[in-house]
Amino acid sequence: MHPFRWVPADGGRHATADVRLAGAYAAGEVIGSLCGRSVMVAEGTEIAWLWPTCPQCNHEARSLVAAGAGT
Ligand SMILES: [Zn+2]
Hints:
The protein has 1 helix and 4 strands. By secondary structure, it is α+β, with helices and mostly antiparallel strands. It starts with a strand and ends with a helix. It comes from Saccharopolyspora griseoalba.
């Protein structure tokens, strides 16, 4: 379990550390993403999940995973 989630927002898939205990993010909710932007969560449709992954979020997420390896 890593301390971030991928969410479809602003036309791309961003990772966020704004983890909700309840699980899901509400469409229209503004969250802080790992790339340092504030992005608005989109509806979790199949199309939304086909959006391109934000390269900066991908980089940050990989760093978090590497840092947490073995824990
Ligand atoms: Zn991003």
